[in-house]
Write a sequence for this structure.
């Protein structure tokens, strides 16, 4: 950008402040309203399928395929049917047990490892970190087959342990927490060291309390990922007592292929906890996604 | 600004470094402290290292070993050398799934990149309700792929589905979106972009927010138009984000979305949505060909590693020299 052209307009606002400011303000207002309309339309189109699912789940069999957004006679029969025709309470409970256990244990283990990798000195630290980091490149679907064979060999198929254990260990949380711990000022630990605190005390009474906000963000992400997991539960369980909700709705659909009002009610039941968690924690989720891998 | 990998190779800051020299007046005390620190570190990492070894590292290695075996049912393993790989390159179904995956990549990586960037450029501005819009645009990413598949199966039902009726009203006949081999893969593409674009929007938004506002102020004072501003400021300063997105979206496109294919299309109709990752799944869990599946899976990992290496080489490790 040539600097000589820059000099002239820079003086302009002070010379004639009123008209140019007004022009800029009206231009800005026009820009804002255009954006409001454009983004508004895109957003409505984007959320439409989700809204359609929820409203259709309150429609009766006769109007589930109508093109009206809202049901003419809203009913909760579909939900009653879902819970009476299939053990949906059990499915939800299984998903809840698995998701919460994975989330709590993963946060605990990941933060321990991240603390060591960020704050302690020991031989092989960088190599271990790179080793952990490199596992990020290999995603779950790629190792699905060998993981299945390992879990089969361990005798963990068809058990809660088989659903939970493989889901706990991933490099993502360790990586994010390590980045966070690297930024903690050393003075906070130094006082504890002078007091003769052990490393566990430092971790438990200094590092963990400092991690509250990042724990909250990661907890929501972990919970969502595990609540939504489908493939691993599909290959790891055949026992109906162990079915998680995502498997539940697929098998429910197989039995009610054309009864869309029931299928959509089942899908709504599975989606509501995630949408609620998202609505409540959206700022934290958005922040953690924005910082994941980028900082 | 750094990508995950540059920060990974950066020497970690060493908060304990001055502490060690202050603490121990004698060499013996210092080495005792170092030993204690070392032991503590390994104990802190132990649960993860054991877990990652059993559930990530061993499966990864096993996948490579398995590629050289024939696995029958659940019993015997026969060493077959390179037979699985030879079979791969003579298998017309695998080769056609590979070609399909390439086409899928060529559409999806730019598709996700442009939709994410486009949305981010729109919602970075200040206007009424923008916060609500950002959240809502991300919402499809929050529900499970099972729910995504069901919603779209419902909307796209032949003849009586919402989309078919809508097109009918304007005098168009809707194709069988998921039943016609010509339309199934494009339909999967649109659905995937629908639920993924919000995620890429957020990543791009984070990158955009890292660009100092002063640059834009100077540009607007200079009278630079939107395109000039984008080309000279936004695009060059967004390069680390773009790099991150190219890398992660390629991995996601090649290996993700398996859930969707399993539920929505089952690879069909007429194999038209059988991407390589689905073929791996099918060989293993439908035909019980674990060795063959592992060979294809390993091939996929090699391709992804090569792609990552290429990206790193082209961008010198994801580091970019920022233009002013």
């Amino acid at each position: 950008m040539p600097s000589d052209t820059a000099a002239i307009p820079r003086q302009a606002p002070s010379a004639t402040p009123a008209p140019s400011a007004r022009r800029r303000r009206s231009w800005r207002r026009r820009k804002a309203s255009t954006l409001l309309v454009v983004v508004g339309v895109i957003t409505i189109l984007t959320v439409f399928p989700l809204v359609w699912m929820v409203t259709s789940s309150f429609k009766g069999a006769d109007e589930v395929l109508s093109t009206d957004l809202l049901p003419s006679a809203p009913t909760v029969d579909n939900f009653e049917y879902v819970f009476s025709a299939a053990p949906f309470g059990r499915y939800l409970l299984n998903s809840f047990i698995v998701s919460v256990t994975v989330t709590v244990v993963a946060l605990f283990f990941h933060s321990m490892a991240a603390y060591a990798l960020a704050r302690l000195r020991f031989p092989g630290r960088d190599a271990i970190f790179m080793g952990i980091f490199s596992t990020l490149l290999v995603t779950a679907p790629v190792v699905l087959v060998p993981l299945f064979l390992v879990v089969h060999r361990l005798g963990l198929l068809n058990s809660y342990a088989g659903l939970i254990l493989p889901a706990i260990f991933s490099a993502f949380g360790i990586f994010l927490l390590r980045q966070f711990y690297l930024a903690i000022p050393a003075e906070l630990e130094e006082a504890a060291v002078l007091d003769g605190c052990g490393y566990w005390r430092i971790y438990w009474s200094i590092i963990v309390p400092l991690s509250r906000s990042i724990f909250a963000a990661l907890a929501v992400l972990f919970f969502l990922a595990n609540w939504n997991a489908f493939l691993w539960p599909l290959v790891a369980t055949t026992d109906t007592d162990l079915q998680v909700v995502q498997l539940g709705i697929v098998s429910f659909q197989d039995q009610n292929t054309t009864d869309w009002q029931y299928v959509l009610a089942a899908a709504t039941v599975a989606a509501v906890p995630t949408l609620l968690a998202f609505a409540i924690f959206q700022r934290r989720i958005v922040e953690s996604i924005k910082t994941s891998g980028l900082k | 600004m750094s990508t995950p990998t540059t920060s990974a190779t950066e020497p970690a800051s060493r908060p304990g470094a001055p502490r060690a020299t202050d603490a121990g007046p004698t060499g013996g005390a210092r080495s005792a402290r170092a030993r204690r620190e070392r032991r503590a570190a390994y104990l802190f990492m132990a649960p993860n290292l054991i877990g990652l070894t059993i559930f990530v590292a061993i499966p990864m290695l096993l996948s490579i070993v398995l590629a050289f075996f024939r696995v029958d049912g659940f019993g015997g393993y026969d060493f077959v050398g390179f037979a699985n790989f030879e079979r791969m390159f003579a298998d017309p179904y695998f080769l056609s799934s590979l070609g399909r995956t390439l086409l899928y990549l060529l559409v999806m990586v730019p598709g996700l990149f442009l939709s994410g960037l486009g949305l981010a450029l729109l919602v970075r501005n200040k206007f009424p309700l923008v916060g609500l819009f950002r959240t809502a645009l991300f919402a499809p990413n929050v529900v499970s792929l099972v729910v995504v598949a069901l919603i779209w199966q419902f909307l796209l039902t032949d003849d009586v589905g919402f989309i078919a009726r809508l097109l009918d009203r304007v005098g168009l006949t809707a194709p069988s979106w998921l039943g016609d081999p010509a339309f199934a893969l494009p339909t999967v593409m649109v659905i995937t972009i629908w639920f993924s674009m919000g995620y890429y929007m957020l990543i791009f938004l984070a990158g955009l927010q890292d660009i100092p506002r002063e640059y834009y102020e100077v540009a607007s004072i200079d009278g630079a138009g939107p395109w000039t501003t984008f080309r000279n400021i936004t695009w060059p300063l967004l390069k680390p984000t773009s790099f991150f997105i190219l890398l992660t979206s390629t991995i996601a496109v090649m290996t993700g979305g398996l859930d969707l294919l399993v539920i929505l299309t089952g690879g069909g109709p007429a194999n038209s949505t059988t991407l390589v990752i689905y073929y791996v799944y099918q060989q293993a869990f439908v035909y019980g060909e674990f060795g063959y599946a592992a060979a294809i899976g390993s091939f996929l990992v090699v391709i992804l590693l090569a792609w990552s290496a290429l990206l790193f080489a082209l961008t010198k490790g994801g580091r970019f020299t920022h233009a002013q």
